[in-house]
Protein backbone atom coordinates (compact mmCIF):
# COMPACT_ATOMS: atom_id res chain seq x y z
CA UNK A 1 0.00 0.00 0.00
CA UNK A 2 2.79 2.39 0.97
CA UNK A 3 4.74 1.49 -2.16
CA UNK A 4 1.69 2.15 -4.36
CA UNK A 5 1.13 5.53 -2.73
CA UNK A 6 4.78 6.49 -3.18
CA UNK A 7 4.60 5.53 -6.88
CA UNK A 8 1.46 7.63 -7.33
CA UNK A 9 3.20 10.65 -5.77
CA UNK A 10 6.29 10.14 -7.94
CA UNK A 11 4.15 9.81 -11.08
CA UNK A 12 2.18 12.97 -10.30
CA UNK A 13 5.41 14.88 -9.74
CA UNK A 14 6.76 13.67 -13.07
CA UNK A 15 3.54 14.80 -14.79
CA UNK A 16 3.70 18.22 -13.13
CA UNK A 17 7.35 18.63 -14.12
CA UNK A 18 6.46 18.00 -17.80
CA UNK A 19 3.44 20.30 -17.63
CA UNK A 20 5.47 23.09 -15.99
CA UNK A 21 8.25 22.61 -18.54
CA UNK A 22 5.76 23.17 -21.38
CA UNK A 23 4.07 26.14 -19.66
CA UNK A 24 7.45 27.76 -19.04
CA UNK A 25 8.48 27.36 -22.68
CA UNK A 26 5.16 28.72 -23.98
CA UNK A 27 5.27 31.65 -21.55
CA UNK A 28 8.85 32.60 -22.43
CA UNK A 29 7.95 32.65 -26.13
CA UNK A 30 4.62 34.47 -25.57
CA UNK A 31 2.55 31.82 -27.34
CA UNK A 32 -1.16 31.12 -26.90
CA UNK A 33 -1.89 28.12 -24.70
CA UNK A 34 -5.21 26.73 -25.77
CA UNK A 35 -7.05 25.79 -28.91
CA UNK A 36 -10.76 25.20 -29.52
CA UNK A 37 -10.57 21.59 -28.27
CA UNK A 38 -8.46 21.81 -25.12
CA UNK A 39 -10.51 19.23 -23.20
CA UNK A 40 -11.06 15.49 -22.86
CA UNK A 41 -8.55 12.62 -22.55
CA UNK A 42 -4.99 13.35 -23.65
CA UNK A 43 -3.86 11.09 -26.48
CA UNK A 44 -0.67 12.22 -28.26
CA UNK A 45 -1.39 9.89 -31.17
CA UNK A 46 -4.77 11.45 -31.96
CA UNK A 47 -4.38 15.15 -31.21
CA UNK A 48 -6.79 17.37 -33.14
CA UNK A 49 -5.32 20.23 -35.17
CA UNK A 50 -7.22 22.75 -33.06
CA UNK A 51 -6.27 21.25 -29.67
CA UNK A 52 -3.82 24.10 -29.02
CA UNK A 53 -0.09 24.63 -28.49
CA UNK A 54 -0.10 23.33 -24.90
CA UNK A 55 -1.45 19.90 -25.80
CA UNK A 56 0.61 19.86 -28.97
CA UNK A 57 3.87 20.32 -27.03
CA UNK A 58 2.87 17.71 -24.46
CA UNK A 59 2.15 15.31 -27.32
CA UNK A 60 5.59 16.00 -28.80
CA UNK A 61 7.24 15.31 -25.43
CA UNK A 62 5.27 12.07 -25.00
CA UNK A 63 6.32 10.74 -28.42
CA UNK A 64 9.93 11.81 -27.69
CA UNK A 65 10.15 9.66 -24.56
CA UNK A 66 9.48 12.20 -21.79
CA UNK A 67 8.36 10.13 -18.80
CA UNK A 68 5.90 12.64 -17.34
CA UNK A 69 4.20 13.29 -20.69
CA UNK A 70 3.96 9.52 -21.33
CA UNK A 71 2.24 9.11 -17.97
CA UNK A 72 -0.27 11.80 -18.95
CA UNK A 73 -1.13 9.74 -22.00
CA UNK A 74 -1.68 6.61 -19.91
CA UNK A 75 -5.37 5.65 -20.09
CA UNK A 76 -5.33 4.64 -16.43
CA UNK A 77 -4.63 8.23 -15.34
CA UNK A 78 -7.54 9.96 -17.14
CA UNK A 79 -8.96 11.18 -13.84
CA UNK A 80 -5.69 12.79 -12.78
CA UNK A 81 -4.22 14.27 -15.93
CA UNK A 82 -3.65 17.72 -14.38
CA UNK A 83 -3.98 19.52 -17.73
CA UNK A 84 -7.37 21.22 -17.51
CA UNK A 85 -7.49 24.96 -18.36
CA UNK A 86 -8.14 25.72 -14.67
CA UNK A 87 -4.99 23.89 -13.57
CA UNK A 88 -2.99 25.53 -16.38
CA UNK A 89 -4.06 28.93 -15.06
CA UNK A 90 -3.28 27.98 -11.46
CA UNK A 91 0.23 26.83 -12.38
CA UNK A 92 0.84 29.99 -14.41
CA UNK A 93 -0.29 32.09 -11.44
CA UNK A 94 2.12 30.24 -9.13
CA UNK A 95 4.96 30.77 -11.61
CA UNK A 96 4.07 34.48 -11.85
CA UNK A 97 4.10 34.76 -8.04
CA UNK A 98 7.59 33.23 -7.89
CA UNK A 99 8.87 35.65 -10.56
CA UNK A 100 7.28 38.59 -8.71
CA UNK A 101 8.92 37.53 -5.42
CA UNK A 102 12.32 37.51 -7.14
CA UNK A 103 11.70 40.98 -8.59
CA UNK A 104 10.60 42.38 -5.22
CA UNK A 105 13.74 40.95 -3.60
CA UNK A 106 15.85 42.72 -6.24
CA UNK A 107 14.00 45.99 -5.62
CA UNK A 108 14.48 45.81 -1.86
CA UNK A 109 18.18 45.01 -2.29
CA UNK A 110 18.74 47.96 -4.62
CA UNK A 111 19.94 51.26 -3.09
CA UNK A 112 17.04 53.18 -4.65
CA UNK A 113 14.24 52.86 -7.19
CA UNK A 114 11.77 54.84 -9.30
CA UNK A 115 8.13 54.02 -10.05
CA UNK A 116 6.38 54.47 -13.40
CA UNK A 117 2.69 54.06 -14.19
CA UNK A 118 0.58 54.47 -17.30
CA UNK A 119 -2.98 53.63 -18.27
CA UNK A 120 -3.63 50.69 -20.56
CA UNK A 121 -4.37 51.71 -24.14
CA UNK A 122 -7.60 49.70 -24.51
CA UNK A 123 -9.15 50.09 -21.07
CA UNK A 124 -8.66 53.28 -19.07
CA UNK A 125 -9.53 51.80 -15.67
CA UNK A 126 -6.32 49.81 -15.43
CA UNK A 127 -2.79 51.01 -14.76
CA UNK A 128 0.48 49.39 -15.78
CA UNK A 129 2.89 49.63 -12.85
CA UNK A 130 6.67 49.45 -13.33
CA UNK A 131 9.69 49.92 -11.10
CA UNK A 132 13.15 50.94 -12.33
CA UNK A 133 15.90 50.01 -9.88
CA UNK A 134 19.66 50.19 -9.56
CA UNK A 135 21.63 46.99 -8.99
CA UNK A 136 23.71 47.26 -5.83
CA UNK A 137 26.51 45.10 -7.27
CA UNK A 138 26.87 46.21 -10.90
CA UNK A 139 25.28 49.70 -10.74
CA UNK A 140 23.17 48.77 -13.77
CA UNK A 141 19.53 49.81 -14.09
CA UNK A 142 16.75 47.26 -14.48
CA UNK A 143 13.04 47.57 -15.17
CA UNK A 144 10.48 45.34 -13.44
CA UNK A 145 6.82 45.01 -14.34
CA UNK A 146 4.77 44.69 -11.15
CA UNK A 147 1.40 44.10 -12.75
CA UNK A 148 -1.93 45.74 -13.52
CA UNK A 149 -3.86 47.82 -11.01
CA UNK A 150 -7.63 48.16 -11.36
CA UNK A 151 -8.98 51.59 -10.38
CA UNK A 152 -12.62 52.58 -9.90
CA UNK A 153 -12.03 56.24 -10.79
CA UNK A 154 -9.18 58.02 -12.55
CA UNK A 155 -8.83 60.91 -10.10
CA UNK A 156 -5.38 61.68 -8.71
CA UNK A 157 -6.41 60.57 -5.20
CA UNK A 158 -7.75 57.21 -6.39
CA UNK A 159 -4.73 56.43 -8.57
CA UNK A 160 -2.20 57.46 -5.91
CA UNK A 161 -4.00 55.36 -3.28
CA UNK A 162 -4.07 52.35 -5.61
CA UNK A 163 -0.34 52.64 -6.43
CA UNK A 164 0.72 53.02 -2.79
CA UNK A 165 -1.56 50.21 -1.66
CA UNK A 166 -0.09 47.88 -4.28
CA UNK A 167 3.54 48.75 -3.45
CA UNK A 168 2.97 48.28 0.31
CA UNK A 169 1.06 45.06 -0.39
CA UNK A 170 4.19 43.75 -2.13
CA UNK A 171 6.32 44.70 0.92
CA UNK A 172 8.48 47.09 -1.10
CA UNK A 173 10.68 49.34 1.03
CA UNK A 174 9.24 52.75 0.17
CA UNK A 175 12.02 54.59 2.01
CA UNK A 176 14.24 53.93 -1.03
CA UNK A 177 12.01 55.60 -3.60
CA UNK A 178 13.75 58.58 -5.25
CA UNK A 179 11.54 59.37 -8.26
CA UNK A 180 8.19 58.88 -9.96
CA UNK A 181 7.51 59.16 -13.67
CA UNK A 182 4.16 59.56 -15.46
CA UNK A 183 2.66 61.31 -18.46
CA UNK A 184 1.60 64.95 -18.29
CA UNK A 185 -2.11 64.44 -17.63
CA UNK A 186 -3.58 66.74 -14.98
CA UNK A 187 -4.55 63.86 -12.68
CA UNK A 188 -0.92 62.61 -12.75
CA UNK A 189 1.20 65.79 -12.58
CA UNK A 190 -1.22 68.13 -10.77
CA UNK A 191 0.58 70.36 -8.26
CA UNK A 192 -1.86 69.78 -5.38
CA UNK A 193 -4.17 66.85 -6.19
CA UNK A 194 -2.15 64.99 -8.80
CA UNK A 195 -0.70 61.53 -8.18
CA UNK A 196 2.85 62.87 -7.92
CA UNK A 197 1.90 65.49 -5.33
CA UNK A 198 0.00 63.01 -3.13
CA UNK A 199 2.82 60.44 -3.19
CA UNK A 200 5.44 63.11 -2.53
CA UNK A 201 3.58 64.27 0.58
CA UNK A 202 4.24 60.85 2.08
CA UNK A 203 7.64 60.28 0.47
CA UNK A 204 9.35 63.67 -0.14
CA UNK A 205 12.31 62.02 -1.91
CA UNK A 206 10.02 60.82 -4.74
CA UNK A 207 10.76 63.62 -7.23
CA UNK A 208 8.33 63.78 -10.18
CA UNK A 209 9.52 63.62 -13.78
CA UNK A 210 7.26 64.07 -16.78
CA UNK A 211 8.09 61.04 -18.95
CA UNK A 212 10.77 62.21 -21.39
CA UNK A 213 9.58 60.10 -24.31
CA UNK A 214 5.99 61.26 -23.79
CA UNK A 215 7.10 64.90 -23.65
CA UNK A 216 9.31 64.40 -26.70
CA UNK A 217 6.43 62.92 -28.69
CA UNK A 218 4.12 65.78 -27.67
CA UNK A 219 6.70 68.28 -28.94
CA UNK A 220 7.08 66.32 -32.19
CA UNK A 221 3.30 66.28 -32.59
CA UNK A 222 3.03 70.03 -31.99
CA UNK A 223 5.79 70.73 -34.53
CA UNK A 224 3.76 68.83 -37.11
CA UNK A 225 0.99 71.46 -36.94
CA UNK A 226 2.36 73.13 -40.09
CA UNK A 227 -0.73 73.04 -42.32
CA UNK A 228 0.61 70.85 -45.13
CA UNK A 229 2.36 68.44 -42.72
CA UNK A 230 -0.80 68.21 -40.61
CA UNK A 231 -2.88 67.39 -43.70
CA UNK A 232 -0.29 64.82 -44.78
CA UNK A 233 -0.49 63.05 -41.39
CA UNK A 234 -4.31 63.07 -41.49
CA UNK A 235 -4.17 61.42 -44.92
CA UNK A 236 -1.66 58.86 -43.66
CA UNK A 237 -3.99 57.94 -40.78
CA UNK A 238 -6.88 57.35 -43.17
CA UNK A 239 -4.73 55.24 -45.50
CA UNK A 240 -3.33 53.15 -42.63
CA UNK A 241 -6.79 52.56 -41.15
CA UNK A 242 -8.15 51.55 -44.55
CA UNK A 243 -5.32 49.15 -45.47
CA UNK A 244 -5.27 47.45 -42.05
CA UNK A 245 -9.04 46.94 -42.04
CA UNK A 246 -9.39 43.40 -43.32
CA UNK A 247 -7.07 40.65 -44.50
CA UNK A 248 -7.86 41.19 -48.21
CA UNK A 249 -6.53 44.77 -48.20
CA UNK A 250 -3.47 44.03 -46.02
CA UNK A 251 -2.81 40.81 -47.96
CA UNK A 252 -2.94 42.64 -51.31
CA UNK A 253 -0.44 45.22 -50.03
CA UNK A 254 1.90 42.50 -48.72
CA UNK A 255 1.78 40.70 -52.09
CA UNK A 256 2.55 43.91 -54.03
CA UNK A 257 5.44 44.78 -51.68
CA UNK A 258 6.87 41.28 -52.20
CA UNK A 259 6.77 41.75 -55.98
CA UNK A 260 8.03 45.33 -56.24
CA UNK A 261 10.19 45.59 -53.09
CA UNK A 262 11.44 42.06 -52.48
CA UNK A 263 14.08 43.24 -49.96
CA UNK A 264 11.56 45.19 -47.89
CA UNK A 265 10.93 43.35 -44.59
CA UNK A 266 7.91 45.41 -43.57
CA UNK A 267 4.86 44.02 -45.41
CA UNK A 268 2.22 46.28 -43.91
CA UNK A 269 1.87 49.88 -42.75
CA UNK A 270 1.90 50.28 -38.94
CA UNK A 271 -0.91 51.92 -37.03
CA UNK A 272 -0.14 55.57 -36.24
CA UNK A 273 -0.33 56.75 -32.65
CA UNK A 274 -1.64 60.35 -32.37
CA UNK A 275 1.16 61.24 -29.91
CA UNK A 276 3.93 59.35 -31.69
CA UNK A 277 4.88 60.91 -35.00
CA UNK A 278 8.54 60.01 -34.42
CA UNK A 279 8.28 56.73 -36.29
CA UNK A 280 9.54 56.89 -39.86
CA UNK A 281 6.85 57.16 -42.52
CA UNK A 282 8.35 54.82 -45.10
CA UNK A 283 8.29 56.63 -48.45
CA UNK A 284 9.38 53.33 -50.04
CA UNK A 285 5.86 51.99 -49.41
CA UNK A 286 4.07 54.83 -51.23
CA UNK A 287 4.26 53.16 -54.66
CA UNK A 288 2.92 49.78 -53.43
CA UNK A 289 0.17 51.57 -51.48
CA UNK A 290 -1.03 53.37 -54.63
CA UNK A 291 -0.95 50.08 -56.57
CA UNK A 292 -2.95 48.42 -53.79
CA UNK A 293 -5.58 51.16 -53.92
CA UNK A 294 -5.74 50.72 -57.71
CA UNK A 295 -6.57 47.05 -57.26
CA UNK A 296 -9.20 47.88 -54.67
CA UNK A 297 -10.48 50.53 -57.10
CA UNK A 298 -11.68 47.78 -59.46
CA UNK A 299 -14.39 46.89 -56.96
CA UNK A 300 -17.49 49.03 -57.42
CA UNK A 301 -17.95 49.29 -53.64
CA UNK A 302 -14.47 50.65 -53.02
CA UNK A 303 -15.26 54.33 -53.41
CA UNK A 304 -13.05 55.03 -50.40
CA UNK A 305 -10.07 53.48 -52.22
CA UNK A 306 -10.62 55.79 -55.20
CA UNK A 307 -10.80 58.85 -52.94
CA UNK A 308 -7.65 57.86 -51.05
CA UNK A 309 -5.78 57.16 -54.28
CA UNK A 310 -6.77 60.58 -55.61
CA UNK A 311 -5.47 62.18 -52.37
CA UNK A 312 -2.14 60.34 -52.56
CA UNK A 313 -1.60 61.21 -56.23
CA UNK A 314 -1.16 64.83 -55.31
CA UNK A 315 2.17 66.63 -55.24
CA UNK A 316 1.52 68.39 -51.92
CA UNK A 317 1.03 65.01 -50.21
CA UNK A 318 4.11 63.50 -51.87
CA UNK A 319 6.48 66.31 -50.88
CA UNK A 320 4.93 66.40 -47.38
CA UNK A 321 5.56 62.68 -46.96
CA UNK A 322 9.18 62.95 -48.13
CA UNK A 323 9.79 65.82 -45.68
CA UNK A 324 8.15 63.85 -42.85
CA UNK A 325 10.24 60.80 -43.66
CA UNK A 326 13.46 62.83 -43.60
CA UNK A 327 12.78 64.56 -40.27
CA UNK A 328 11.31 61.40 -38.67
CA UNK A 329 14.60 59.68 -39.41
CA UNK A 330 16.25 62.08 -36.95
CA UNK A 331 13.44 61.91 -34.38
CA UNK A 332 13.24 58.14 -34.35
CA UNK A 333 16.81 57.70 -33.12
CA UNK A 334 16.22 60.03 -30.17
CA UNK A 335 12.85 58.43 -29.43
CA UNK A 336 14.42 54.95 -29.27
CA UNK A 337 17.29 56.18 -27.08
CA UNK A 338 14.94 57.86 -24.58
CA UNK A 339 13.09 54.57 -24.06
CA UNK A 340 16.25 52.74 -23.02
CA UNK A 341 16.32 51.61 -19.38
CA UNK A 342 20.07 52.26 -19.22
CA UNK A 343 19.69 55.93 -20.23
CA UNK A 344 20.25 58.57 -17.53
CA UNK A 345 19.29 62.26 -17.35
CA UNK A 346 22.58 63.63 -18.67
CA UNK A 347 22.49 61.25 -21.64
CA UNK A 348 18.91 62.29 -22.40
CA UNK A 349 19.88 65.98 -22.45
CA UNK A 350 22.85 65.08 -24.63
CA UNK A 351 20.59 63.37 -27.19
CA UNK A 352 18.27 66.39 -27.30
CA UNK A 353 21.21 68.77 -27.78
CA UNK A 354 22.51 66.59 -30.63
CA UNK A 355 19.05 66.63 -32.22
CA UNK A 356 18.88 70.44 -31.99
CA UNK A 357 22.30 70.68 -33.63
CA UNK A 358 21.22 68.36 -36.48
CA UNK A 359 17.99 70.30 -37.06
CA UNK A 360 19.86 73.60 -37.17
CA UNK A 361 22.33 72.08 -39.60
CA UNK A 362 19.43 71.10 -41.87
CA UNK A 363 18.21 74.69 -41.82
CA UNK A 364 21.62 76.00 -42.85
CA UNK A 365 22.41 73.32 -45.41
CA UNK A 366 20.06 73.74 -48.37
CA UNK A 367 21.57 70.68 -50.08
CA UNK A 368 19.63 68.44 -47.70
CA UNK A 369 16.33 69.90 -48.89
CA UNK A 370 17.58 69.65 -52.46
CA UNK A 371 17.93 65.87 -52.01
CA UNK A 372 14.40 65.63 -50.57
CA UNK A 373 13.03 67.77 -53.39
CA UNK A 374 14.75 65.73 -56.12
CA UNK A 375 13.43 62.43 -54.68
CA UNK A 376 9.87 63.77 -54.35
CA UNK A 377 9.88 65.22 -57.89
CA UNK A 378 11.27 61.97 -59.32
CA UNK A 379 8.52 59.94 -57.66
CA UNK A 380 5.82 62.43 -58.69
CA UNK A 381 6.95 62.37 -62.31
CA UNK A 382 6.91 58.55 -62.28
CA UNK A 383 3.13 58.72 -61.74
CA UNK A 384 2.59 61.61 -64.15
CA UNK A 385 2.68 64.59 -61.77
CA UNK A 386 4.68 67.82 -61.85
CA UNK A 387 5.58 70.08 -58.88
CA UNK A 388 2.74 72.45 -58.01
CA UNK A 389 1.60 74.65 -55.15
CA UNK A 390 -1.05 73.25 -52.77
CA UNK A 391 -4.60 73.94 -53.93
CA UNK A 392 -5.27 76.17 -50.91
CA UNK A 393 -2.34 78.46 -51.85
CA UNK A 394 -3.18 79.01 -55.51
CA UNK A 395 -5.29 82.04 -54.63
CA UNK A 396 -3.50 82.97 -51.42
CA UNK A 397 -0.65 85.31 -50.60
CA UNK A 398 1.93 82.80 -51.88
CA UNK A 399 0.26 82.17 -55.24
CA UNK A 400 3.18 83.64 -57.20
CA UNK A 401 5.92 81.66 -55.46
CA UNK A 402 7.85 78.94 -57.26
CA UNK A 403 6.85 75.49 -55.90
CA UNK A 404 10.38 74.66 -54.76
CA UNK A 405 10.78 77.97 -52.87
CA UNK A 406 7.36 77.59 -51.31
CA UNK A 407 7.97 74.06 -49.98
CA UNK A 408 11.43 75.05 -48.74
CA UNK A 409 10.39 78.09 -46.70
CA UNK A 410 6.71 77.55 -45.89
CA UNK A 411 6.84 73.82 -45.15
CA UNK A 412 10.34 72.38 -44.62
CA UNK A 413 11.89 75.29 -42.71
CA UNK A 414 8.61 76.09 -40.92
CA UNK A 415 8.36 72.46 -39.74
CA UNK A 416 11.91 72.43 -38.36
CA UNK A 417 11.57 75.84 -36.65
CA UNK A 418 8.36 75.07 -34.74
Characterise this structure:
The structure is a single chain. The chain is an alpha/beta fold and 418 residues long. It folds into three domains: 2-83, no CATH class; 96-210, 2-Layer Sandwich (Nucleotidyltransferase, domain 5); 217-417, no CATH class. The chain has a five-stranded mixed beta sheet with strand order 3-2-1-4-5. It has helices at residues 2-28, 53-63, 67-72, 85-109, 156-169, 186-189, 195-202, 212-223, 227-243, 247-260, 286-297, 303-312, 315-338, 345-364, 366-382, 403-417; strands at 113-119, 126-134, 141-150, 177-182, 207-210. 56% of the residues lie in helices and 9% in strands. The model has no long low-confidence stretch (mean pLDDT 80). It is built from 16 helices and five strands. A hairpin with a 6-residue loop joins β1 (113-119) and β2.
What is the compact description of this entry?
This protein is an alpha/beta fold and 418 residues long. The protein has helices spanning 2-28, 53-63, 67-72, 85-109, 156-169, 186-189, 195-202, 212-223, 227-243, 247-260, 286-297, 303-312, 315-338, 345-364, 366-382, 403-417; strands spanning 113-119, 126-134, 141-150, 177-182, 207-210.
Beta content: 5-15%
The general outline is flat
**What is the residue-averaged pLDDT?**
80
Number of strands: 5
Q: How would you write the strand order of the largest sheet?
A: 3-2-1-4-5
Gyration radius, to the nearest Å? 28 Å
Q: What is the helix/strand order?
A: HHHHEEEHEHHEHHHHHHHHH
Individual helix count: 16
